[in-house]
User: Fold these one by one.
Assistant:
Number 1:
Amino acid sequence: MNRLISEFISTFILIFAGTGAIIINDTSGGAITHSGIALTFGLVVFAMIQTFGHVSGAHMNAAVSIAAVAWGKLERRFLVGYICSQLAGALVASLLLKSLFPHHPTLGGTQPSGTEYQSLVLEFFLTFILMISVIGCVNAPGAANLIGPAIGAVIGLEAMFAGPICGASMNPVRSIAPAVVSGNMTSLWIYIVGPIAGALVAVMVAPFVFTPASKTNS
């Protein structure tokens, strides 16, 4: 149960801070800026991994959880609970933001600003980079304390350069929650299919690059 509570709380904080930054930037005339939004996502991921990583792995991301099962780092029996806890935390965060900013049209949701093809390809490769970075950090000797900073940096970097085109979701629940609560579900499938596919391909590629670390459930 502590794992599921950890995933609920960490995903709630991720969505509350990350999409909250988008909403507040829109309502304040750009006070946070695009760079500030990217930094917010990177910092909150860093903080949540450091806080909850030893409990549940701090996935906060259904694509990461699905890939973790394929990777052998999460027992299959935990998968549904992880995803439900992540969705619940994300939805509660979006509902809270809706109560604070009832007139915001997307609540920080992700939508393509270019073509759907551009966003699908970007989401695939962004999540591939994210997952291969996770695997690399886990397999690096003595790198346990660096996972939070490293993954936070990857998230911030990817949000910085790709956010203006696809939103740089890399995370199905991050996109589903604001879309459902705002009722604006344009192209939502991209942010489910792209990240899951990218994360799974990273798991397939990883054995050709990294020496496997000892398998432990996270």
Number 2:
Amino acid sequence: MDNAGYVTLTRQAGLLREMQTVANNIANLSTTGYRREGVIFAEHVARSDDGGPSLSMADAAARLTDERQGPLERTGGTYDFAIEGEGFFLVMTPEGERLTRAGAFTPGPEGQLLTADGAQLLDAGGAPVFVPPGARSVALGSDGTLSADGQPIAEIGVFRPLDPLRLVREHGTRFAAPGGWEPVAEPRLVQGFLEGSNVSAVSEITRMIEVSRAYELGQTFLDREDERIRAVLRSFAR
């Protein structure tokens, strides 16, 4: 295969990754706290050893998380929390501490606040948040102060990654932050709301159509290149 074929194949591989990413975004249109993901295309240029034209290859291995806030949806739930502006909740999972924007929690057997799959919500100091069993009323202040029957019991932690570009997506709405994180100075939280997905259905479907057409054009080119090479080989065989 000549250089044009290799270049087209790398482009096709990148388009396939983007199509998979777009499909995943669409599948999470209704997922609480989901952040849209995009694919970054990069161009790598290699100099020819014999002084001929350089060779350009496309690469789409890097992914970028869209940090725009999703819509806040009123639920009225006592343990449904949402963050306005920047920052993430910190939860403890079997794999370690992770960041998330999904704020649907429920009290566990001992009063600890848990996600649907059992991850513990952590406070500003990194300790699990507990609500006293039998508390008649639980309120969350806009600064993250959690109170039970009028008495402060915890401060919900809100953190931001030190290097947002190094966020690694796990389990859809959770992120590992290899670069570490720091507390948000003035967090803004609301109780009885959940943050919806920040995916735009119209934008994603439009992008899916664009990627599909680009992939079809690339496949047409490869088919024509294949036929050209076959024609040359047949001419030599005569």
Number 3:
Amino acid sequence: MLFLFSGLALFAQSIELTPIFGYTVAGKVDNYGRYLNVENSALYGGLLSVQFDDMMYVELSYERNDTKGNGFLRSADMAVEHYQVGMLREFGIGKIVPFTKVSLGTTRYAQKSGGDERLWLFSGGIGAGAKLFLSDRIGLRLFTNLMLPLEFDGAGFWCGVGTGGSGCSGGVSFNVPIVHWDMGAGLIIRLQD
């Protein structure tokens, strides 16, 4: 994955590094008889954005918040980390550039006190925001994201033959046990134009 990303960076129109800081609202949910609670807390992380077409970026992102939680792991201090690969689309050119993004990756819940339990979940995200450029190389990024960890519920595959013909089908189901709403800002450092 990094090899592919570094190859894309060679032909990039621009590369942006963005350290971020913000706040995560996670909340509580009753999920199939299991009560989940992740406390709201500060988040930090970073983004590597590589422009591959006009107003289109591939983005690697890492976000972390240190919090308290119960439900997945027993009540304990925990870290929530989101590792994502996504696509960002800008809308406009100038000093203020709005954008939207989608991403896929994984979310890790790691217990930090009273044990060493970890839980990895497939996750996706959607987000929006704006880039405010102060110069050609420096800017501010304001953003909001919904991070959606997914629990696997089941899968099925079936085939049938009848008077109308034959066919096969399959399906996979997931549920979203808890939603993380991230809001924050970052300092954009543009390395290449």
Number 4:
Amino acid sequence: MDNTVGSLRQSAISSREKEIILGTILGDAHLSMLKFNARLELGHSETQKAYVFWKYQELKKFTGTKPVQFENFDQRAQKTYVQWRFKTKTHTYFTELWKLFYKGKRKIVPSKIVSLLTSPLTLAVWYMDDGGRRNDCYGVFLNTLSFTKRENEILAECLQRNFSLNPRIHWIQDGYRLYIPSRDAQKFSALVDPYLLDLMKYKLPYNPVTTSFARLNRARDRVNAL
């Protein structure tokens, strides 16, 4: 039987590829269901171009073309935003994840996330996508605003069980997000630091190599967040 979807043969997926895919789905990526199977779609701003190309290299066997640049003019801000994006070809594995992570058009947190989110690499990719550190303390956060309070609770339980972290759920203007307090800063940083790209190191409140905490600087952090 020919298992080809389009021009992509349904070859085995490595553990590393699965961990990266899962991290980016928890973060900014989107799964889109086509006629028979789903595909992965992702994009990041111009400042994170190198991060997009890192993902492309890691998932290259699923793609047909390199990342492309898109420009979007915001009428309200009167500003042009640049983004780099790529899409994969369809694959049965993406279909399996789409069934777990989507309810209609809404991305959800699967009830079985505790058995999926077990790798520090997945946590690191999720953090590179959607995380940051506070500029008034050494706590870090994961922007989980699109998820419900109960879904945030499920994620918090998963992080506690699998990584011995103790997240809190904070309400901000647009929804709930996970906050990992300062007392877990060293533990969290040690978990993800080996997998973070150099351009993302500024997000860490603690450097496990130099065993030093980052200097708190609100002005600098505002610049890095742009």
